[in-house]
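ok so I'm stuck.
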Amino acid sequence: MVTLDKIREEMRIRLQIDSQLHFVEVRADTVDEALADAAVQLNTVVKNLQYEIQEKGSDGILGMGKKPWKLKIYQDPSTIKRDVKLASDGLFFDDEMQSQQVVKNQDGLFYVRHFGGDIALKIVLPVGEGTPIDAKDVIAEVKRQDTLEFDESLIRKYIKNGTENTYNVVGKYKHVPAGDVLISVDATKDEMKGSIIVSAPSMSGAEASRDMIVRALTQQGIIEQCINYEKIDEFVDNPVYSIPFEVASALKPVDGKDAYLSYNFETDIKKLKAKISDTGQINYKELNQIQNVIAGQPLAQKINAERGKGGKTIFGRYLEAKNGKDIQIQLGQNVRFDRDGVTVIAEIDGEVMLVNGKITVEPVKYLDAVNVKTGDIKFVGTVIIKGSVEEGYKVEATNIEVNGIVDKSRLEATGNIIVRQGIFGKGEGYIKAGKSLWAKFINDTTVEVEENVIVNDSIVNSNVTAMKNIVLKGKKAQIIGGHLLATEEICARKVGSPGGGTETILEVGIDPRAKKRLEVLQKNQADCSKDYEAVELDIQTLEQQKKLRKKLPPDKEEKLKILKDKIKQLSEDLVQINEEIDKLQEHLRELKAVGKVKVEDTVYAGVKIYVRDVLDEVKLDCKATTFYFDRSFSKRGPYEPPSLEEEEPDGYTAN
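replied:
not stuck anymore, here's the structure
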């Protein structure tokens, strides 16, 4: 029973909604543009809006007499009611939330339409926790004054199962053709858009169906490819009468893309990032500022221009598209096109970069210094450093030239290394060259080179290994302390120091690498033999216990088995070690290099000189002496100048 209190409450709610139902008046060329403008002003979405037409718009003739649409637009009261409820519950709501919510929860929907003489029903099932459709509501809408018959069981079936987004016939009504909707078709002057204007049906008149709208469009010459069936279905579900509703649009031409280069390297050096560890920490020594490439590596591909794809107006008139423009690619130095004519590849190893817009591979990297600004350097070409290499950094390259000091750091080159101002290793510096090393001095550093070490000043307290020669030339040219090994010659002006305070050892006539390996193997041999003897003694003890008791406890039996496996492995290891030692000793015996130590001025007492493993320990200072090997003895003779003539490193200019 409807009481006065209920009426008052309903009126109070309506008044609250109406007080929030503000509107805007909008002028625009089309209804869609007006709605979009109002949605921004009202802070909502277009589907939440309702409107009244105050003035109809017109396209005019050839742009003359064009008149905008004037609409009074306001928000749908039901959406305001929803917002009020959410706000009262302490919740917030926006349109983005609504879009997400529709996917999860959506009320069931139904549409009853009258097509021809049929009553058609479309059911959209609820989603998630959405409210299901009440059959009474559907039947109430189906059951009109002009309804002749309907199938209630079929309606209930569709409400339960849905209609798969189509309209299905559920009854008949008394059709009066005079009351049918009238559909007119309107097209823009440029034939890019087509709209329908549908008059509202009168009682017992047929509404606009999808087939009716499509038929009206095609009869006016609009081609099928341009018809938007989704918009037509939208109109059928929610018809908008007496105003244009766009349902067709032209197939716009698509211009072809211009040709371009797709680079395989980073062209913007600002985007080169330091290495980040798994824990998210930045390694400031690995700044990754150099992009290394090797000969034959693809650097870029030319993507050819595309042909444009023509379009059509809604009446089928061809719309021409532009073809993409080709480009001419200019190559920089040390790159070329591959045989396919579109791939750019490197001709040499080096650093890839863009120089004046051209892909270039530079074989030489110039740096002011190696420090916190550069981080560690790793380059497949030559690195020339104008300044110094600061403590704690690493440089890896083909060739390295340092015009300043090399502090306690690590330099590794597959070719030559030049250090103009010398090396301060501080006990931890390490220099390795695949060819030769030139330096002013070497101090407290480990050096390993495959060819020659050439020093102008001194070598102090360093371990230097050269597969050919160690030559000191200059006014000082002195070796003080350390251990130097060379296959051919060690040459200097002075060796050792007065008083012999620092141990100085020179070795020549041997393969330094083989000798070091032999020393490691001999130590491993001694350790392995010691372990073998200890395990053998343990086995003998357990075997003796087993012989006396005839049986060992399970744990000792297991231990005996483990010991036997271990001694078998040690035996195999010893065999391998002994074989390798024999080969190295044979190699050192057959070494053709005689080896000499040549000292132009003084060899101080206390210096130890090995010539082909034969020791000649200097007891008294001697001058202008050559130490050499003859008939299994180390002998001394008059000073001989170095056999090696100082050479400039080949492959790059060190200026």
